Amino acid sequence: MKHLLVLAILAAPAAWSQTLKARELFYTPPPDAAKPPAVTKAPDAKAATKTIATKSAAPKSASKAGDTHKLSASVPLGLRYAVLKRDASGQYQEVDPDTNFRSGDRIRLHVDANTSGYLYVVMQGSSGTWKLLFPSAEVAGGSNLVRNGESRQIPSGDRGQFVFDEQAGNEKLFIVLTRQPEPDLDKLIYSMGGTVNKDGSRSLVAQASVGDNVVSKLRNQVASRDLVFEKVDSTPADGKLENAAYVVNPSTAPDARLVVDIALKHK
Q: Could you tell me which residue, 228 or 222, shows the higher pLDDT?
C-alpha cells in the first residue's frame, strides 16, 4: 500500500509560489519579504518608550501551554518531516517514509516549521481512536507553539521512540500546523472550560483522544490542490543524506493551515 498523504490549505497560493517547489518555498521567502521596511517618521520619545515596553513583555507568554497568539507572517506556512530509524549502532538516520518497517524497528518523527505556528500530532490506534502525541507535557510545558526554525521530536526525550510490535499493518499519523490555535483540537487536549494555571498556562488533558470525526472535519475544511508537496532523497554538499518530505501552504494569511496524513507500513 503506497504512502498516503492528504495535503490541504484554506487560501489560494500567491502568484510568486507557482514556480517554486516545496523545499524552495520552505527555505526561501517571497521576493517582498527580503526588501527593507519603508522609512517612516520616528516616533516621539514617549511613544517609543511605550512601544519598547510592549515588545519586551511579549516573549514571557510565548512558551506557555495554550498560547493563543494570532500569528501572521510574510512567508508561506511550511512543514518538513522526516522518519528517523535506529540503526545497528544505535544512531537514528532519516529513512524513506515508504520503507517497509519490520517488527522490532525503532523510529522517531522529526518535524520542523519554517515560521511560527501551532503544531498538533495524533496517532490512530488499532481501535480507530486517535491518541495525542503532541503537544506533550515533556516539551515546553505542554505548549504546542513552535517558532521559526524550531524542531520537534516525537516522542520526545533521548529515549523517545516508537517500536513496531508483532502485529503487521499501517500505523497512521495525522499532523496539523496552523497559524491560529485549532479550536476543535484545543478543547480536546486542554482542560475543559479553559482552566488557566497560575503561570498563565493551560493543563493538558491526560490521555487525550481525538475522534475520527474531528480528523475528518479538519481534512474537509481545506482544499488539497492548493498545497505544495515535495519528497526529497538527496545528499547535499555536507555529505549528510536528506530523506524527508516538505509540505507548504503558500498562503501568508493569519488563518493559514496545513494537514498531513502519514501511513507507516509495517510488514
A: 228
Q: Respond yes or no on whether the N-terminal peptide bond of residue 254 is cis (omega within 30° of 0).
A: no
Give the DSSP per-residue string, 171-220: EEEEEEEESS--HHHHHHHB-GGG-B-TTS-BPBPTT-EE-HHHHHHHHH
Per-residue burial over 14-34, b if 16 or more Cβ lie within 10 Å, else e, is eeebeebebbebbeebbeeee
Q: Rounded mean pLDDT of the chain?
A: 75
Which amino acid type is present at position 50? K
The pLDDT-based confidence of 208 (bands split at 50, 70, 90) is confident
Q: What ranges do the domains of the chain cover?
A: 15-30+72-266
Burial class (CB in 10 A: 0-12, 13-18, 19+), 232: middle
Rounded to whole angstroms, the Cα distance separating 171 from 126 reads 9
pLDDT at 63 > cutoff 50: no
The model's pTM is 0.73
Interatomic CA distance for residues 85 and 124, integer angstroms = 20
Residue 55 has pLDDT above 90, yes or no: no
